[in-house]
Amino acid sequence: MPPAPFISLDPGWGVSLGGKATIICEGPLFYPVHYELEKDGQNTTAKKENLGSVAFHIFNVSREDRGKYSCLYYDWRKESWSQTSKPVELLIMDPDLPRPQINFSPSRMAVLGSNITIQCWVQGPTIKFYLVKVGDKNVPNMMETSGGLANFSLTKVDREDGRNYHCKYRPRTGFFISMPSDEVDLLIIDPDLAKPTISLHPTELVTLGGNVTIYCKSQDRAKNFYLQKPGDQMIYHPMETNGTLAKFSISSANFEHGGSYSCNYCLKSKPYVISQPSDLVELLITDPDLPRPNISLSPSRIALLGSNITIHCWVEVLIKTFYLYKTGDWMTLRSVKPDDGVMANFSINRVGSNHGGEYHCIYRPPSEFLISEPSNPMKLLILDPSLPRPAISISSGGSVALRGQVKIQCEIQEGPANFILQKAGDQRAKWPMKSNYDRGEFWITNISLEHKGNYTCSYALFHSLFVFSAPSDPLELLVSETEVTADYTHSNIIRFAIGGLTFLLLIYILQNGSTIE
User: Fold this and answer.
1) Which range (168-172, 190-194, 509-513) has the least confidence?
2) Which CATH class is domain 197-286?
3) Beta strand residue intervals within 83-192, DSSP E
4) pLDDT confidence of residue 214
């Protein structure tokens, strides 16, 4: 009896309803034979004669086409039928079956040489699970199971294991197979590829509902970049990339966006082999329900250039980290872990002109990726003794009567500048002066005894608004107890002029009226 032919089926692991299936039967190579196709042990009408092999096509596949197929041939030279081939099963993909799920443990990213488990599961009993490596024509991994879960183990993964995978399952009855699960990439981490760098812009501290951009940069030109949160199976793809830089944008940030992030990249030549992950960066989201922190400065909010100061941040709850930054300048962000859990001290040694500005504190609680809203602002002013001191003058010469008014003027050689007037002995008695390039003016009206005393003025140039000069020499304002009786204001002068004109007009009328009959 001639040997059995070899039989194969394409596609081999499930045919869609309405699709096409091809059964190939391979016999003797050197002379033609007569082939016949059997289904479930019964002859079919499919018969062909050919040299080497024949293909039996089934078009518009229906549920009735499912079953076991085998083939045999008649050898004219030996006048004998061959043995029957081993059967192949034509399985129909049933869209009514629940689709399975697929997952990678511990991660979709596996280090070269490590072990990984690919899990496939579905609710309900199954007979077999199939793990399919997309694009690989080798026989899929198959696992028989009595439940709804199969674990496919890959040991000592290599670069060739990196690929796109999906799984299917076969129920206990009938020649049916499920639709495939979602396709998932298995990415192999190659330690030979340099790790990229990752950064957040404008900062890792994001207001609830705000926007943030995550940048990932590689040394080599990359095909794809991947952004990942540890413990999150979701792998993000870049919104934009130019080959060495990828940009991931998050708009309307919410609490779920908070967390640690890292990124990888792959080269065009090996799309499933990726670099080592970057260092982690943390994205923190503002929680408006957290109490605001407090901020203070010692020894004073006015610091002499070159001196040392300390900024204190505290709050009446336990915290993990305090942050200090200048308004509008996230590059100045500094962090400190408090010793007692509630207060942190930020030291600035040898204060420079660049340290002047408006500061805020925020803090991070011990758990979760949250931060508080900022403290109230605190201004740090720098006193620069190298700036020329201004000159101060008083319009009245230094003495003014009660209820009178006086103009105090502060002058410098070169402007433009902002000016401040201060009364000696009272830190709270500070007033901004009206600036006119190189001169500042301040009017005091309705003078009282409380206004008497020594006054000084200082200035800050427009290009460095938080760096002030040393104060001017003090100028004493004397207040006499005699009240002002004449009021020569503009409106009173006008009233005097109108009254004088009226009096002259009356005289004119009386003089001329005496000669008129």
Assistant:
1) 509-513
2) mainly beta
3) 88-90, 92-94, 101-105, 109-111, 116-121, 128-133, 141-144, 149-154, 163-170, 176-178, 184-189
4) 95
Q: How far is residue 421's CA from residue 441's CA, in Å, rounded to a whole number?
A: 9
Identify the DSSP state of 389.
P
pLDDT tens per residue, range 405-452: 999 999 999 989 999 999 988 777 789 999 999 999 999 999 999 999
- HSE at residue 211, side-chain half, CA atoms within 13 A, is 5
Hey, what CATH topology would domain 95-189 get?
Immunoglobulin-like (2.60.40)
- The three-class DSSP label of residue 205 is strand
Residue labelled with tokens 């540890």 = 230
Q: Which CATH number fits domain 6-93: 2.60.40.10, 2.60.40.4070, 2.60.40.1930, 1.10.1840.10?
A: 2.60.40.10
Q: How many CB atoms lie within 10 A of CB 469?
A: 22
Give residue for tokens 């004397």.
478
> What's the whole-number mean pLDDT along residues 294-317?
94
Choose among 159, 160, 157, 126: nearest CA to 142. Answer: 126
- pLDDT computed for residue 239 by the predictor: 63
Whole-number Å distance between alpha carbons of 7 and 188:
36
Taking the C-alpha atoms of residue 239 and residue 441, their distance in angstroms, rounded to an integer, is 55
pLDDT at 517 over 60: no
What mean pLDDT, rounded, does the chain reach?
88
Would you give the end-to-end CA distance of the chain in angstroms? 165
Give the pLDDT confidence score for residue 242 in this predicted structure: 78
Name, in order, each residue with C-beta under 8 angstroms of 179's C-beta and a sequence gap of 6 or more.
Answer: 93, 94, 95, 97, 99, 168
**Gyration radius from the chain CA atoms:** 44
Secondary-structure class of domain 294-383 per CATH? mainly beta
C-alpha neighbours within 13 Å on the C-beta side of residue 351? 25
Q: Specify the pTM.
A: 0.67
Q: Are the folds of 95-189 and 391-483 the same?
A: yes
Residue 499 is inside which H or E element, if any?
helix 490-513
What is the sign of the dihedral through the CA atoms of 123, 126, 131 and 136? negative
Rounded CA separation 88/67 (Å) = 8
SS3 label, residue 513: helix
Q: Residue 492's pLDDT is what?
A: 46
Between 330 and 185, residue with greater pLDDT: 185
Average pLDDT over residues 247-276: 92
Q: What is the C-alpha separation between 122 and 374, in angstroms, rounded? A: 49
Burial state string for 49-80 with b = 16 or more CB within 10 A and e = fewer than 16: eeeebbebebeebeeebbbebbbbbbbeeeee
Provide φ and ψ at 513, rounded to 5°: -70, -25
Handedness of CA 162, 168, 172, 176 (dihedral sign): negative
The topology (CATH level 3) of 391-483 is: Immunoglobulin-like (2.60.40)
Rounded Cα gap, residues 328 and 335, in angstroms: 17
Distance separating alpha carbons of residues 279 and 261, to the nearest angstrom: 8
| C-alpha of 482 from chain center | 69
